Every structure is written in structure tokens, then in C-alpha cells.
Amino acid sequence: MATFFGEVVVAPSRAGLDEEEEAREETPEDREIRREIEKKREVEVLWSCAEEPLVCSRFIVAIGRNAAAFLSSFILDSVCWEVVGVVKLWNEWCRTSSTTNVLPTDSFCLFYRLISDPTVLLCQCSCYVAEDQQFQWLEKVFGSMQKKGLQVTILSTCPVADYKTQESTLTLVSPFLKALKTKEFQEQVCCPLLEQPNIVRDLPAA
Amino acid sequence: MFIPCDRGGGPAAPDFKGFTLLMPAVSVGNVGQLAIDLVISTLDMTKVGYFYTDCLVPMVGNNPYATAEENSVELSINAEVYSLPSKKLVVLQIRSPFIKNKYRPFCETLLSWVKSSKCARVVLLSSSHAYQRDDEQLLGTPLRYLLTPDLEKAVGGHVKELNWKEMEKVAAYPGISNTEKVLHIPGGGITKLLFTESCSEGIQMAVLLKFCSEGDNIPDAFVLVNYLNEWLQLIKSEVSTSNNSTDPSSQWKIPSSWRLLFGNGLPPALF
């Protein structure tokens, strides 16, 4: 693509596939490096309670700092909830550890259980889970649960500027709630559903 | 990988034996995907399942083909399968890019699903960077096709009658004569990989592609879907009485999710 100044630049394509990647054959060294990186990027879910799989009837997941802060401010306390698990992962944006003693400014992913009803689980995930780790996170977390009429609620936030609407987002009253639900969810939803062409990405989508 | 929708009371898994699988490559301008959107929307195809895969970036939203309040609340994800048994057509729509290093496993799993579901043939809609054309390709039609040897035997004659242009091979080392000619589809995503694998595995596959650039690719999608229609005759191209030409563009239904592709409304305070 030629720009106004005459220099030729390679325009980033919405197609998303890196040409270089496809042209090159993988050498054994490349394979080894890729395997090492994959190992480093592995998601580890560590449960502190003895019984596994955990029986779960309600699972509330808060993804992102805002949603995690909401749970900290309004729901969680040390009297009614106990920590039962943690996710350990690393990517270019953040690293979490296996400690459960975290500050609100840390990147962490913790699981809590309601002491009065141990089938109610809560997850606070303030770290960024990279796209190649999202599926793994999903499989490992849900894989260690025994689902009993499981209802999952996902809380997350998106910038208003990303919201697609006929009017300008400047005049929109924010913050506002939107929801997506599966057809199996029969209860009343507390807010309007997310209209097309808006979509949800990353871990909440996974 | 393929998970059928639970239609309650219907057969456990839909039968695609003998069907034509129509699918897009995630390629420059997303033209293949836009064209597939037009096919699904116009033919009012029913969703029959989805792909459970770790190869594509996750995304979810409400029904992109909604026409009314009632049908707008069905969830839609990144790789879904639609079918129209009356035309023996099954369509795969891909809505997000591949995760790094995952496009090869996806292609392998896809082709083995094609074989196990006994689809008769695969038609792949794709695109390629317009700026990479050589002098000859700059002239004439921007549309090209490719057929695997097995499909060439089956429909080669019919395609010849359509007067289509086959995708040219280019020199492996440009500038040096006498080098072997290879297939090169820049910006085509998984197109080349799927095509070469299908050739070696005896799968009947056709690739239909358009040279284009990133931008407003809606017109490119219409051109590509009309090209497809010349062959598969998915919709009838009615002769327009006003200018006496056959232009089926107006008969493709634009899905509701194509709204606001280039941003929201403007704030009035701007003026």
C-alpha cells in the first residue's frame, strides 16, 4: 500500500494471519522454543480444599479489575467466604502467583466458596488471560467442577467508547448494564440484552 | 470439534452426506466471511451446530441475522454451522481470527471433519491482496478460481463454460526465469494450506477468490457472492426490467449485524 508520501507500507490486515508465519517451515530448534514457551504459558489451577472435583451449583466469575473490585466492595468478606483456589499463569501483560494474600492492585485470579453453602463458588480474575490461555483456563477450571444444575454468571466491563450505537456515545448515560444469556437461562434478566452489532471478546466470551 | 445444536426431538446429529460445504477463509478484507453472511442471511439458513475449538479467538454476541425482537436473542459464537437441506448446502461461518500457531491444527481437524461427515465437496471463499498482482492480473476480472484435481474431474467442464479465470501460479523466485511455478495467495489466510492439503487428500475443493484491499469490503463481498452464484445458483438472478441487465446484488439480504461497521453516530456538539 502506498501512502500519501510515496513510501510503501504493509497495511495491517483484518484477516489477522501473519504471512511470515505461514511461509516458514518449523526447524527442530523452533519447535523446541515453541514448546518451552507453551510450557511457560501454561495455566495452573491450584485448589486448597481437599475434595476434588468441587461440587458447584452457582459459579460467579468477575473478569477484569472493575468487576473484581465490585465483588470485593459489595460481596466478599472474610466471615462468609473462604479462599479455595488460585490460578497461576504468566503472559506478556501480567504474572499471577499462588499466594492468596493479594492487594487490590495486584494481578490475581482467586476462587472463593460461600461457607454457608459450599456449592456457591466465586472467582475474581483481575489478571489478563491471553487469547492462547483462555481455552486452557476454561477447561481446567470447569474440568475440576462437578456440575449440579450449574448456573454461571459472568461479570465484566467494557469501555463505553467500544459500544456501537446509532447515537454518539458522548450523549449516552453511562455506566449502563447489558446482558447476554443462553437459551437455557430461564430466569428474568435484570437489564436489557446486548444488541447487535455489539460483541463480547476474550475470557468472558470464552 | 462439531457440536450439533440440541433441537429437542430431532435426530442426534445432522447428516451432511453428499452436501456442499461452503466456508470462508479469514483473509484480506474479510471478504469471504462477509459473503458467507450474505448467503446465510438471504437463504434464511438454520443453525445446526458449532465448532468447539481452541484455535479461534473467542467471541460471543446475539443473533447477527436477527430480523425481529423474537429471533434476536439467540447467542452466536466464533465458528457456527448452518444448513439448508433443500439445496444440500451446509455453511460454516468463522467470525474471529486464528490464535497464533493454531491455524494448522484447525485445518487438520476441519478436513478430517469434512471426510467423516461425507460432504461431497468444499467451496472456500477467499481473497488476496490486490497490491500483489502482477501487470497481467491488473487487467480484466479480479476474480479467480482453483479446483482440486478430484473436483476438476467432476465439474471442470461446467466451470470452463462459465469462462472463469484460474488463479495463476507465480515463479518461486521472482526475477529469475526457469524457476518452478508455485501457488501464492498473499493475504489469503489458510486458503493455500487448505487447498494443498485437499489436493493431496483427494478432497473435492474449489476456491473462489477476489483480489481486494482493506477498506469498505461490502462491494467486494457482493461481487464474490455473485461469482459463487454463477456456479451454484443459490438464488435466481432476475433480469432487471429497468436497465435490462442481470444484476442479482439487490436480491442478497444484508444482515442486521452489518450496521455501524464504520463507527457510531456523531455527537451533535461537534457541529
Structure description:
The complex is a heterodimer of chains A (206) and B (271). Chain A has a domain at 40-155. Chain A contains five helices and seven strands. Chain A has helices spanning 19-23, 28-40, 65-74, 131-143, 202-205, and strands spanning 44-47, 54-63, 81-88, 109-114, 117-125, 145-156, 199-201. In chain A, strands 1-3-4-5-2-6 form a six-stranded mixed sheet. The longest helix of chain A is centred in the N-terminal third of the chain and has 13 residues, at 28-40. Chain A starts with 18 loop residues before the first helix and ends with a helix. Chain B is of the alpha/beta class and 271 residues long. Chain B has helices spanning 31-42, 103-116, 149-161, 191-201, 218-232; strands at 2-4, 20-24, 46-51, 59-62, 75-77, 79-84, 89-94, 121-129, 143-147, 170-171, 181-182, 205-212. In chain B, the strands form three sheets. In chain B, strands 1-3-6-7-2-8-12-9 form an eight-stranded mixed sheet, sandwiched between helices. In chain B, helix 1 (31-42) crosses helix 5 (218-232). The longest helix of chain B has 15 residues, at 218-232. Chain B is globular. At the A-B interface, helix 1, helix 4, strand 7 and helix 5 of A face strand 4 of B. Chain A: It holds the Pfam family PAC1. Chain A: InterPro entries: Proteasome_assmbl_chp_1 (IPR016565). Chain A: GO terms for molecular function: proteasome binding.
